[in-house]
Design a protein that fits this description.
8-stranded mixed β-sheet
Length: 1877
């Protein structure tokens, strides 16, 4: 092949070429196939030398032009078009259907473009002056960079509308291109078509096919990302990945800006380096690659060669998610440069030590003569220059390319900033131009000029500058675009004059002239090569010492400008180059420099700093001089550290206990079953969890993913060898199919940094986000304890002027020394230098504090302050309490070095017993010396020999330096004794919002601004210094002798990340404390193994200061008032790491002379005591810790934009996401958490390595997972406590869903029940004996407790204690005062619409055989003489229930409802149809009887009013519904009962007639129906055991049974058809044996009855009634001589339902809609009187009036129970203080004997013809007794008085006539009252 790359066969390329050849052969009419094997050796084409690539680039334009001319010689295969079909159009410019396609002809026509298609212009060789309009799928078109077009074609004809052309050959034939060469879309699809301001279709920009002509192998430009002019894990050449354009929902982000960052994340092991190579040490793999490279005498070419798009196969077989779409090969042509390709970093390759040059058309393309990089550049300049390629061509670099770094990031930013106009062009704004290249470069110069010498350029800043400039220059156009107003006038030209290429160098030089040479401009006349050469020359000569940035411009009138920017400032260049390392490469680089001894030169340099000699020699000398004073036992104990496993039990103990998952005394192993660390065993544990969830489908499993921003790598990317074992575990576990599809698993992501989960591809709905606390962003006081969260914004606020002590600081002397050493040691990583400098500072500070004062000159003031306070803190406290200093060293190897060095210095200085040094890591246990373990046990009064601290919180009061390592701090909680948080060593080059906020989150606190202390307790020394005032930690100590209070300025409470110390959702547990002399004051939950129940407990141990108790003798009752607001002890439950122990709640007092017995009320093992007087830990508790930051981070954190938003908030949110567009609006400080989430959801996209990358939602809601939630909140705010509390509440709610409030009331009027020693049945009898039952007297008395307010029914002369009757309730209290109890729903319960389970899906209408809601409406009419008209009802019958009915054939008219036979017997069938009248309870009515019937077949009919039909049908689609006529829309329950009964009797007659034809006797048809209330929830049966010695002995138990069992038992009653009514008891927990002893009663039945419609044919319900209609009906049935039987062994539970039913009837004024309270006294009025008429049925007004005011009609009857009111043929409730006596006027009716009874009143209600004068004259009345006659109108009233001869015995007056307060059209009822003569 002619080059050294020959012979390397690429499989993927082979498949592409082979496929293309086969496809071409199939299309070609030539028999000779196209040769293919000459194309298979690809390295020859791709990995060009610099000269070859340059010439290739120069000739590319000519090659394309030749192709356009259609030269046949350019194609190896001649092409002959397929002949067109006969009869079709072949005219040029028209399609074969004869439709015009020319742009000039159809530019003003409306063309429908399908979603995802674009209009493009095709060039026809026969019509050179015309464009043909085509609609093409944009996936098969290239992006702005000429890449990422799918191979193949998909298009539509806009003329005839034909769709679905899958081959461009076929399409070109259809539009009559008449080609002589092979049809190629690249040759003939030339322009995008856009609408202009007038709406006409015009030629737009050229389709950029150029990249595709160059084999599609150039790397794509990366979307600008948040970093220091360079992505954190990127440098050099970007790779590319296929990327779909932005969703249509985001029009302002054009397709061109959607180039995702090149993902070098699929590195084949054969090409990529899996091992790091350091400074000349080559790996074997590199040697292999090296052998394949071109000769080193040629200019070196270093590049990342990537497959820029999908494999060149048919597009239907390619998925953007397939790994081949982003396959990448990395070639490192410089064998000495360490490999920087990072596959887990996620975006660009990182090659910081090398010049980066790539293929011809890449951003890094080289052209012209090469530029030689001088030798020893790094040695001379002390830094590697970073070159940012700008516009135009970039020359090749050769020579010492190790000493320069080249990045395409600025080029990408420039490209993206020009792409916005394309989005506007699509909407007609074709005149809006992007920022010119000249203006871009000039703005860049302006930006660099204003940067300070210690600042580093940020790409975000530049992007916003471009955005603002473009918006200002096109402000009027943008406004018109945003208003979507059609533009009918030319746009106003921009007022900003354009910068020409000739002006550019002069303007740039003018801008740079004022910056003291920090920006140097080099103008070139020919190419950038001469400018770069000059720049290198100036560097070598030392003329750019003061220059930080060199801008090289090559401007010419004849062509576009070329430019690049070189970072020559040593500080800036170092930061930028190091920012290109991924986190893992950063660690590898540091580790390499440590293990290879590169840092030894640094150590030897430090040893020469001290004029007195080596520091180690000074330490040894000091040690020898002071050796005699050191306790050997102490040092021995220190040298035997105890390694601890940081696992605690308290975190999930209480929640497990509360949820009932575990019992008391949990072991650590039991608790760990509920917490899973992401380690090697995670998948095994998770599999067990999934199996458990599958085996328990009715149990809700909550999967809590804590610290959810950690490890979001896609599982697909974690399969490569360079990744860690645990990487991608979260994706493999949480996003597995089982979790996604399990309906009983809810996933809760918990994090302080949710940004990575808030992208365009997120799984989490914005409605499922919870921001904790909800009012955090609104400045609202969250906690009534005067607490305030102290987080990032408060730290920043402390740095503003006006604040006394800034809590955020940087160490200028430390930074100066680091900068100086960075220049001295340019090859060492900054992290190494910074760490060694800081170790040196701490070592020198320790020595200075210990007496070597000369060492003060070798440390910084800040470090000396930290060390002094640390060492002196334990010395000043009698108990040895001290401060914690956190030294954050993310790099684990450096942390180990620091630990070893500081440990050695401490030992040499004899400080072993003064403070501990702890090397901590989130994934490891705590190791501390035995001496300090013993101290902690003494302070905390722990007696357990084996106790060890398991969390950092348990190190409260321990003086220590915690060297905290690990790249991710993982939300660790630190104790309140933390005083200094030293973050000077955090990785300041990786500027990502999550990283910065996570580091600062270590110092987050809750602080309290007020502390109340008792003056009498404070001694003089403490009073003089308010800083020494101690606190009582959330307790307000109020004593009788208090004269004044002291308040210290600030008090701090250390909150865990899980802390709910101030959380409103947390339980109110608290452990307060008091002081004692030997062991000063503090109590806290510490020994979690002994007291796991302390967490989230609802019990609080409230104690008072013992001193106060002794002095003031406060009694026990007063103690409860002392603590108003108690802190909470909660725990952290962490899914990734070990459980954290309880938060330590500290209470300190203000002096110590108290008795030691004061702690007696607290458990000894649960107390730890801290000193108050002179205790520096107490001082530390008064304010948050002081935080030291690197200067670079400090500047970013403290700088704000115009809205006050910290700059850190606008950084890239997370390393595995990227900005969707450079043109995004600025975030605002006023944004709430929800608004920030929506911002990130619109403007960020995940990189391919992100686990959400493949979740392409494209604006649709269906990719949000329905069971994913996100809880976010600032660090240490209390999220863990919140979600633990959430679990507790959720558990209670779920339990509550399985519970129900049922009425639990004793039967009433038991004391007036007819006492009899005679029992008619034995306790164990299951059914009534008919003959025996006929002898039982009827019990007229109402015993149902719901009728406690009803009138008593008298059955004989009896004396009733008036006090035994309750006073009338107020109407509004009628329901609220009824007694209920909470019951657990059994498996036989009836349910409302909220119940869903697999068993009853079919019952509820989810049977796949039937379409949902498929039902038919059937009319059913019958005549009823009493109504005087035909009744027409409607049945709604679902298809699934039609088998219960009989339909006519043909016509399918409803004829009847099928009824079974009396003799039928089946275990799986209920014979009696069930009717449930209901109103207002479509959601809450208990109509799901599937479980109650135990799955038995039954017929259930809902009886609804016409206006509620639709809503009931919606909620209960599979239920049969009986729709009442519209005249009953305002009727009461009596109308429903009346129609149910009459319909059922009519149906019985129809069934008898139908089945009689089948030979069945009429009496054999089953005559019973069930009428059930809609609130019957469960049914119970009493089981009686009569196995005692005596016949009368028995025991009984009550249990829940199915309704099926009860109904089948009743239906099996012997001679059942002889009973008219059958019912059961109302359940009560207070049921006594006397009620059970008689198993059957003849009395009233309610709520759930079986009605014999045959026997009761002539007894009707009163259709007018609203209340007591069942009592009225029972009395009618009994008086007709029919049997009413109640089964006392069965009972029904009724659920309390707060809506619907009788509450549906609201009595209001008819005149005004304003709700006015109307008393029952206003329900009646005098006839013809001007009165406010009421909008309510007359019957309802009557019943309500009589219930509350009947004493006005019957004054003698009030509490006169021995003289009741005689009520004829009806029972009306006259209130509880009036008794009534019911009599029937029907012949042969059963009535009580009235002899001896004298009545106090007579009530005649709608009398019929059976009531005659002779009947009334049988009864005797008291003198002065009153009469009330009620009729439908005044005429009937008079006729009734005359017919019944009432005037003979009763006196009437005109003023005694009344009516209900209805208007005439509402047919009021009329009353006439009179007095007995």
């Amino acid at each position: 092949m002619g080059n050294s790359y020959a012979g390397q066969l690429k499989t993927t390329r082979f498949e592409e070429v082979l496929h293309n050849s086969i496809e071409a052969s199939l299309r070609s009419n030539n028999l000779v196939p196209r040769p293919i094997f000459s194309q298979l050796y690809l390295e020859a084409e791709q990995q060009l030398s610099s000269l070859e690539a340059g010439s290739r680039a120069d000739n590319e334009e000519e090659e394309e032009e030749e192709e356009e001319e259609g030269s046949e010689s350019s194609s190896p295969v001649s092409y002959q078009m397929k002949p067109p079909p006969e009869g079709c159009c072949t005219t040029d410019g028209f399609c074969q259907a004869g439709k015009d396609l020319r742009l000039v002809s159809i530019s003003n026509e409306h063309i429908e473009v399908p979603s995802g298609f674009l209009l493009v212009g095709a060039k026809s060789p026969n019509l050179p002056d015309h464009l043909l309009v085509c609609a093409v799928d944009k996936r098969f078109l290239p992006d702005d960079n000429g890449r990422n077009a799918l191979l193949g074609f998909s298009g539509n004809c806009v003329g005839c509308g034909k769709k679905g052309f899958c081959y461009f050959t076929e399409f070109s034939n259809h539009i009559n291109l008449k080609l002589t060469t092979q049809p190629k879309k690249q040759k003939h699809l030339k322009y995008y078509l856009v609408r202009n301001a007038q709406g006409a279709l015009t030629k737009g920009s050229v389709i950029c096919w150029k990249g595709a002509e160059f084999r599609g192998r150039q790397p794509s430009s990366s979307t600008c990302s948040s970093t220091l002019f360079q992505l954190p894990e990127s440098s050099g050449l970007s790779g590319s990945t296929s990327s779909e354009p932005l969703p249509a929902a985001n029009p302002s982000a054009p397709a061109g800006t959607q180039q995702t960052a090149a993902a070098i994340d699929h590195i084949p092991s054969t090409a990529a380096f899996s091992s790091a190579v350091y400074n000349g040490k080559e790996s074997p793999k590199q040697q292999l690659v090296k052998n394949n490279l071109s000769a080193l005498t040629r200019p070196s070419v270093l590049g990342t060669l990537t497959n820029s798009g999908p494999p060149k196969k048919r597009h239907k077989g390619w998925s953007p998610e397939s790994p081949s779409s982003t396959e990448t090969w990395n070639l490192q042509l410089n064998p000495q440069a360490p490999n920087r390709i990072k596959n887990d970093g996620g975006s660009l390759s990182s090659l910081p030590h090398s010049a980066l040059v790539g293929p011809a058309s890449s951003p890094m393309v080289g052209s012209g003569e090469p530029v030689s990089v001088p030798d020893n550049l790094l040695t001379i300049c002390k830094a590697k220059p970073v070159i940012f390629k700008g516009h135009g061509n970039f020359p090749y670099l050769c020579g010492n390319i190790n000493d320069v770094i080249v990045s395409p990031l600025l080029y990408t930013c420039y490209r993206n900033s020009q792409s916005l106009s394309r989005a506007y062009e699509q909407y007609g704004a074709s005149t809006m131009q992007p920022i010119s290249e000249e203006m871009q470069l000039l703005l860049t110069v302006y930006y660099l000029v204003q940067l300070a010498s210690d600042q580093v350029p940020l790409i975000e800043d530049l992007e916003q500058i471009f955005m603002r400039s473009w918006r200002e220059s096109h402000l009027s156009e943008i406004r018109q675009y945003q208003q979507a107003v059609p533009q009918t006038f030319p746009l106003v030209p921009s007022q900003i004059a354009a910068v020409t290429s000739a002006q550019l160098p002069w303007l740039a030089g003018l801008a740079a002239s004022s910056c003291n040479d920090s920006v140097h401009i080099i103008e070139c006349s020919y190419s950038l090569a001469e400018g770069l050469s000059e720049m290198f020359k100036l560097l070598i000569e030392g003329k750019l010492i003061k220059t930080n940035y060199v801008v090289i411009i090559c401007a010419s009138r004849n062509r576009a400008i070329d430019s690049c920017i070189v970072i020559t400032g040593k500080y800036q260049a170092r930061i930028l180059s190091e920012s290109m390392l991924s986190p893992s490469d950063y660690q590898k680089e540091v580790n390499y420099q440590l293990v290879t001894g590169k840092v030894e030169t640094l150590g030897s340099f430090f040893s020469t700093l001290c004029p007195e000699g080596d520091i180690d020699l000074l330490l040894e000398k000091f040690y020898q001089e002071n050796q005699g004073h050191i306790s050997s036992s102490l040092s021995a104990s220190v040298n035997k550290p105890t390694a601890l496993n940081g696992t605690g039990t308290a975190a999930c103990t209480s929640i497990l206990l509360e949820l009932g998952l575990e019992k008391e005394h949990l072991t650590k192993q039991r608790v760990e079953q509920y917490v899973m660390k992401l380690d090697a065993e995670a998948q095994i544990k998770f599999k067990v969890f999934l199996q458990n969830s599958m085996q328990n489908p009715h149990t809700l499993f909550v999967l809590i993913h804590d610290h959810a921003h950690w490890d979001l790598m896609s599982a697909m990317h974690s399969l490569y060898p360079q990744t860690e074992v645990s990487t991608g575990l979260v994706d493999r576990l949480l996003n597995c199919r089982e979790v996604k599809e399990a309906p009983n698993i809810v996933t809760l992501h918990v994090t302080s940094f949710p940004y990575a989960l808030q992208t365009q591809h997120t799984h989490i709905s914005p409605y499922n986000e919870i921001h904790w606390p909800s009012s955090y962003s609104n400045g609202v006081d969250l906690y009534h304890e005067n607490k305030k969260y102290f987080g990032l914004s408060e730290f920043i606020e402390s740095t503003l002027s006006g604040h006394s002590i800034p809590l955020l600081r940087y160490d200028s002397s430390f930074e100066s020394m680091v900068t100086a050493l960075g220049k001295r040691f340019p090859r060492l990583h900054s992290a190494v230098i910074r760490t060694f400098v800081l170790i040196q500072h701490y070592s020198a500070a320790m020595m200075a504090v210990c007496g070597l004062s000369q060492m003060k000159n070798y440390t910084s003031v800040e470090t000396l302050e930290i060390t002094q306070n640390l060492i002196n803190s334990s010395r000043q406290c009698p108990s040895g309490h001290g401060l914690m200093v956190v030294l954050r060293i993310p790099c684990t190897p450096l942390a180990a070095v620091a630990y070893e060095r500081l440990y050695n210095v401490r030992e040499r200085l004899a400080l072993e017993d003064n403070f501990e040094i702890i090397l901590g890591n989130p994934n490891s246990g705590i190791t501390i010396g035995k001496h300090f373990v013993e101290q902690l046990k003494i302070w905390q009064k722990i007696e357990d020999v084996d106790w060890r601290p398991q969390t950092y919180l348990e190190l409260e009061g321990l003086p220590c330096i915690l060297i905290f390592s690990g790249m991710d701090p993982q939300g660790e909680s630190l104790p309140r004794s933390l005083r200094y948080c030293d973050l000077r060593l955090i990785n300041s080059s990786s500027l990502v919002r999550t990283n910065l906020e996570q580091e600062l989150g270590l110092a987050a606190y809750f602080v309290s601004s007020e502390i109340h202390t008792e003056k009498a307790v404070v001694n003089d020394a403490l009073e003089s210094d308010p800083e020494k005032l101690s606190s009582t930690d959330d307790e307000e100590i109020a004593t009788e002798g208090s004269t004044s209070e002291k308040r210290s300025p600030m008090k701090r409470e250390r909150s865990c990340s899980h802390d709910s110390a101030s959380s409103s959702l947390s339980s109110k547990a608290s452990i307060t404390a008091f002081c004692s002399e030997p062991s000063p004051p503090l109590i806290a939950a510490a020994d979690t193994a002994k007291s796991p129940h302390q967490a989230l407990s609802n019990s609080a141990e409230e104690t008072t200061n013992n001193y106060e108790r002794q002095k003031q003798k406060i009694d026990k009752g007063a103690q409860t008032t002392i603590s108003k607001h108690l802190p909470v002890v909660t725990e952290q439950l962490d899914i990734k790491q070990n459980i954290k122990s309880a938060q330590i709640s500290i209470t300190s007092s203000s002096s110590s002379p108290f008795s030691s017995s004061s702690s007696s009320s607290a458990p000894a093992h649960n107390s730890f005591i801290l000193q108050t007087s002179q205790c520096s830990m107490t001082k530390a508790s008064k304010q948050p810790p002081i935080v030291f930051l690197p200067k670079l981070v400090y500047d970013i954190i403290t700088s704000t934009d115009s809205s006050g938003l910290p700059k850190s908030s606008s950084l890239l949110p997370y390393h595995s996401v990227m900005w969707a567009s450079s043109f995004r609006p600025l975030m605002s400080k006023m944004m709430t958490c929800t608004e920030q989430s929506l911002y990130y959801r619109q403007w960020t996209v995940p990189k391919p390595i992100h686990m959400d990358y493949n979740n392409r939602n494209e604006g649709r809601m269906d990719t949000f997972h329905p069971r994913r939630l996100l809880l976010s909140g600032p660090p240490q705010i209390g999220k863990t406590g919140a979600y633990l509390q959430f679990l507790s509440i959720l558990s209670r709610m779920l339990i509550r869903l399985t519970e129900v409030d049922v009425y639990d009331e004793e039967e009433i009027n038991i004391n007036i029940k007819e006492e009899s020693d005679q029992y008619y049945h034995q306790p164990g009898d299951m059914w009534p004996d008919l003959e025996t039952f006929k002898k039982m007297p009827f019990d007229y008395t109402i015993h149902d407790p719901k009728y406690e307010d009803a009138s008593l029914i008298c059955s004989k002369l009896q004396t009733i204690n008036s006090e035994g009757r309750s006073m009338s309730r107020r109407q509004e209290d009628m329901y609220a005062r009824r007694q209920t109890t909470r019951m657990r729903l059994s498996k036989y319960a009836a349910y409302n619409t909220y119940h869903h389970c697999e068993q009853c899906h079919q019952y509820m209408g989810f049977n796949p055989r039937y379409q949902l809601y498929e039902s038919t409406l059937h009319a059913f009419a019958f005549s009823y003489s009493m109504l005087g008209e035909e009744i027409q009802l409607h049945f709604i019958i679902p298809k699934s229930k039609e088998h219960h009915f009989v339909f006519s054939q043909p016509g399918r008219q409803l004829e009847s409802m099928r009824l079974p036979l009396v003799t039928d017997k089946s275990e799986d069938y209920i014979k009696s149809p069930t009717f449930t009248p209901t109103t207002g309870r479509h959601e809450h009515g208990l109509f799901n009887l599937y479980h109650a019937m135990d799955g038995a077949s039954h017929l259930h009919v809902l009886v609804v009013k016409e206006y509620e039909m639709a809503i009931y049908k919606k909620y209960w689609p599979n239920h049969i519904m009986l729709v009442l006529p519209s005249i009953f829309n305002s009727a009461g329950v009596g109308a429903a009962h009346f129609l149910i009964k009459e319909l059922s009797y009519h149906n019985l007659e129809l069934e008898r007639n139908r089945q009689e034809e089948l030979g069945i006797k009429p009496q054999d048809i089953w005559p019973f129906i069930v009428i059930s209330d809609d609130s019957c929830v469960m049914w119970n049966a009493v089981e009686v055991d009569c196995s005692g010695d005596r016949k009368s002995d028995y025991t009984w138990t009550e249990r829940n049974v199915s309704l099926k069992q009860i109904l089948q038992h009743i239906e099996a009653t012997p001679n059942v058809t002889h009973y008219a009514l059958i019912g059961m008891r109302k359940w009560s927990s207070k049921t006594n044996s006397a009620e059970i002893k008689e198993p059957l009663s003849c009395c009233h039945v309610h709520d759930f009855i079986m009605l014999n419609v045959d026997l009761t044919q002539n007894v009707q319900y009163n259709q007018n009634r609203f209340t007591c209609d069942d009592v009225d009906f029972n009395l009618r049935v009994h008086s007709a001589g029919l049997l009413i039987c109640r089964f006392n062994h069965f009972s029904v539970m009724k659920k309390q339902i707060a809506v619907g039913g009788q509450r549906s009837f609201h009595i209001k004024s008819k005149v005004s809609d304003t709700p006015v309270s109307i008393s029952p006294a206003q329900y009646i009025c005098a006839p013809d009187n001007k009165h406010t008429f009421l909008a309510a049925p007359a019957q309802l007004l009557l019943e309500k009036y009589l219930q509350y005011h009947s004493h006005r009609f019957f004054p003698l009857s009030l509490k006169n129970y021995s003289h009741p009111v005689l009520s004829v043929d009806c029972y009306l409730n006259l209130g509880p203080q009036i008794a009534v006596c019911y009599v029937s006027s029907r012949p042969h009716s059963l009535n009580i004997s009235s002899s001896g009874l004298t009545f106090s009143g007579l009530l005649l209600y709608l009398c019929d013809s059976f009531v005659v004068a002779s009947f009334l004259k049988k009864f005797h009345f008291l003198k002065g007794a009153t009469l009330c006659v009620i009729c439908q109108d005044r005429n009937s009233l008079r006729q009734t008085v005359v017919r019944l001869e009432l005037e003979d015995e009763w006196q009437f007056r005109l003023r005694d006539e009344f009516q209900t307060a209805n208007a005439k059209e509402d047919r009021p009822l009329f009353f006439l009252t009179g007095r007995h003569i």
